[in-house]
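Friendly challenge for the regulars: who can give me the structure tokens for this chain first? No prize, just bragging rights.
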Amino acid sequence: MTETPIPDPTAALPPRRQGAGALAGIRVVDLSRVLAGPLCTQMLADHGADVVKVEPPFGDETRRLGPPFDASGDAAYFSALNRGKQSIGLNLAQPQDRQILHGLLRDADVLVENFLPGTMQKWQLDFERDLAPRYPRLVYCSITGFGGDGPLGGLPGYDAVLQAMCGLMSVNGSIGSGPTRIGVPVVDHLTGYAAFSGILMALLARQHHGAGQRVETTLFDTALSLLVPHAANWFCSGQAPGLTGNAHPNIAPYDQFDAGDGPMFLGILNDGQFRKFCDRAGRPDLALDERFQSNALRLRNAAALRTEIETALRACRRDELCRDLMAAGVAAGPVNTVPQALGHAHAQHRRMHVVDGAYQGIGLPIKLSATPGRAGAAPPAFDQHRGSILDEAASCDPPGAKDA
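First reply, four minutes later:
Bragging rights claimed.
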């Protein structure tokens, strides 16, 4: 890393970049790595925030989680979480690099970090003791596995481990497969959204009260919050939920079935939808069968109902059946591959497949009418924006000074 100039404490603060989006003018310092934190800050960037990604001297480890790797040598995984950001490498264990960070924080609105509890305190960057007195308007977001205290406080957490510990695997999978990890990092993903929501609430509260605050999210809390409706079922019945395969514990038919030319998913929530399905499947008699005349009865007789449906669907072509059912108000869809899903005409219509030169990514799931966001520039190379970021940090106040 090149030698860093000492910041000039007399320099004026740099002007805020003018951008588009609901969060234009908001400045974010992103100390996070891997998934939940970077996803949160990417969403902030997508909606106009100015995000500086501060990476350790060896870079965000997600850059190495491959193959596949892109033309620049970074893992494709990294590209999913870091568009629209600037990058600088800093060793926060070193006082001089911490001084650069203070230069960025002096005009920042948000700091996001996902270090093990105690790490920021070790670097004299504790929120309550070191940062809040100096930057009273700062919103500080901490993302950890389990929080900093309690029986599991301070321990490391990863998505799949939390899926196992928090009961998600116990309800995912079939008798044949046994407990199974959900195929996407759903705990990390939702934790990123929880952090995003908490930051926005803290920024709104700051408008009313003038002060920032700590936002805390943990993988543990998020994983437990995903137990819907399984936890509610257990609270009510006292019976521990078990493996459901692709079926729903409270609704039938709500499962994967094989049509004549491929698998599909059928979601029926009420009796009217069930009658429409039976008509389209050529089995109107099923809606009159006393075993299937309400959801509770269909759930109780789910095995018999499944046999009847599978027999009826063997004569149906999947895409035509799904099209007709959806047109009739019955939710049904083919089991698509990832390329099929992102290549669907509706994914293009909803701008959910972003292509910008060599960069490809998933589009924005939150769409605002007056202040729409947009996918930012391709993810940065490590330390790519060092010069311009150091120019901003050059306005750092001297160590020990307090913000007004």
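The longest helix spans residues 186-209. The two ends are 33 Å apart (CA to CA). Your move, everyone else.
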